[in-house]
Amino acid sequence: MAKLNFGGTWEEVVTREEYPLSQAQQYLKNKTIAVLGYGVQGPGQALNLKDNGFQVIVGQRKASASWDKALADGWLEGEDLFDLAEATQRADVVMYLLSDAGQIAAWPTVKANLNTGDTLYFSHGFGVTYHEQTGIVPPSDVDVVLVAPKGSGTSLRSLFKQGKGLNSSYAVFQDVTGSAKETATALGIGVGSGYLFETDFKKEVYSDLTGERGILMGAIAGLFEAQYNVLRENGHSPSEAFNETVEELTQSLMPLVADNGMDWMYANTSTTAQRGALDWRHKFRDANTPIFKELYARVASGEEAKVVIEANQKPDYREKLDQELEHLRNSELWQTGQQVRKLRPENA
């Protein structure tokens, strides 16, 4: 492992140089890997593993959109595409990549078809951490590991095809064989991780749910709406409000942060922007810290998991979700976004 200094905190990480793909291939050469679920994470991880030379099969409920998607991607029924029960039976490594709601529904089937000594793999700590609500309690005779790419399955796949990788966390929940950590490491490299950093199931789900509701999705959407609405209320045009709120951030500033960090981005903007950003940063941090503390407490208590599970179990969940997304899509802010994106040079 490499030991890196992150701002004064030392952390051990696994890089591709220390654990190369060839080592992962050798370690898992006699293992059949079943990817259960072909929705969000499943396609990226399954296809990356397949392209990296691993023996991969897909398990998915028949007569579903995801089954059809797997067929379209080249998986063949009866050869490397099976229903959930048969895929689980055939596998040495069972990658449980159904949605959280899907995992709850399919767990009795999957649990009944696990074999002693198998590895049960997750990319999210939700099911195991909130087992009192999900009912997902792994049997005592299998290894249980986690590899969680820090991004969508779509990003994992696209970066893989560019020769790049998404960083991933990894964890061991249960080590029956004595080899669970190496299995997790090999799988993490196999799916295309940039580097691997260690966590545990609880920390993974706590950070993930906080991030999704916070900076990654909920907070950024709320901040977009707040600034856009204030600019519009003060007479700014939709184009001006959108460009100053979203377009400049996503197209100009965030790439600078991604490449070299926030300080480098600040250094490459005007002195007026620098001064304002440095002064107002503290105000936004102090105003939002109580919200993040409330959010983290709700995640840790299981309240957010309860909301998710109850919502997903309602028969009209998809219908209501579509209505909420349609409301968001039809707002002036994101209708403006559709038009602005059409005007980008690459789309002109």
User: Mean of residue pLDDT?
Assistant: 95
Number of domains: 2
How many strands appear in the DSSP assignment? 10
Q: In what order do the strands lie side by side in the largest sheet?
A: 1-2-10-9-8-7-6-3-4-5
Quote the beta fraction.
Answer: 15-25%
The tally of helices reads 17
List the SSEs and their pairings.
Layout: E1 2-6, E2 9-15, H1 21-27, E3 32-36, H2 42-51, E4 55-59, H3 65-72, E5 81-82, H4 84-90, E6 93-96, H5 100-113, E7 119-122, H6 126-129, H7 131-134, E8 143-149, H8 153-161, E9 166-174, H9 180-190, E10 193-198, H10 201-213, H11 218-233, H12 238-260, H13 262-267, H14 271-301, H15 303-312, H16 317-329, H17 332-342
Parallel strand pairs: 3-4, 3-6, 4-5, 6-7, 7-8, 9-10
Antiparallel strand pairs: 1-2, 2-10, 8-9
Helix pairs in contact: 1-9, 2-8, 4-5, 10-14, 11-12, 12-17
Notes on the structure:
α12 packs across α17. The protein is built from 17 helices and 10 strands. The chain is globular and about 65 Å long. The longest helix has 31 residues. β1 and β2 form a beta hairpin. The chain folds into 2 domains: 198 residues, NAD(P)-binding Rossmann-like Domain (Rossmann fold, 3-Layer(aba) Sandwich); 137 residues, N-(1-d-carboxylethyl)-l-norvaline Dehydrogenase, domain 2, CATH 1.10.1040.10. The chain has 348 residues and is of the alpha/beta class. It has a 10-stranded mixed beta sheet with strand order 1-2-10-9-8-7-6-3-4-5, with helices on both faces. The mean pLDDT is 95.
